[in-house]
Amino acid sequence: MPIFQTGAYQVKASSLPGVEKAIHEFVDYVKANEPGSRMYLAWQQKDDPTKFVHLFIFEDEAAQKRHGESEAVRRFESAYSPELVGSEVVFTDYVMIAGKREGARGE
């Protein structure tokens, strides 16, 4: 069963170039190496570019675990963690009750 999750955080304005670079590198890794990550999107808030939301759809718990335990996650965390405003990323789990996604399989 798919897992739908978001991760939201805010970073210092002075760290934006480095954090944005780390996001691009990390998402490239996910695209190339995580077939069980069906969707991974990183959004930056338009009216406050220091705020980010990452949207995940993992194929199942095993895919979520592989993602979370990867060396790439540790590298990404080391890039943004020291730059956080506040102390943590807020992860929220969701259940899809209705929707439309191009190319979605059986959800």
Model description:
The chain is of the alpha+beta class and 107 residues long. It has a single domain, classed as Alpha-Beta Plaits (2-Layer Sandwich). Helices cover 34% and strands 27% of the residues. The protein contains three helices and four strands; from the N terminus they run E-H-E-E-H-H-E. It has a four-stranded antiparallel beta sheet with strand order 2-3-1-4, covered by helices on one side. Helix 1 (16-33) runs antiparallel to helix 3 (71-80). The protein starts with a strand and ends in a 13-residue tail after the last strand. The mean pLDDT is 94.
Average pLDDT: 94
Q: List the helices and strands in order.
A: EHEEHHE
| CATH topology call | Alpha-Beta Plaits
Oligomer: single chain
The number of helical runs is 3
Largest sheet geometry: 4 strands, antiparallel
Tally the beta strands.
4
Topology:
Blueprint: E1 3-10, H1 16-33, E2 37-44, E3 51-58, H2 61-68, H3 71-80, E4 90-94
Core attributes:
4 strands, globular, 34% helix, alpha+beta, Alpha-Beta Plaits, four-stranded antiparallel β-sheet, 107 residues, 3 helices
In short:
By secondary structure, this protein is α+β, with helices and mostly antiparallel strands. The protein has helices spanning 16-33, 61-68, 71-80, and strands at residues 3-10, 37-44, 51-58, 90-94.
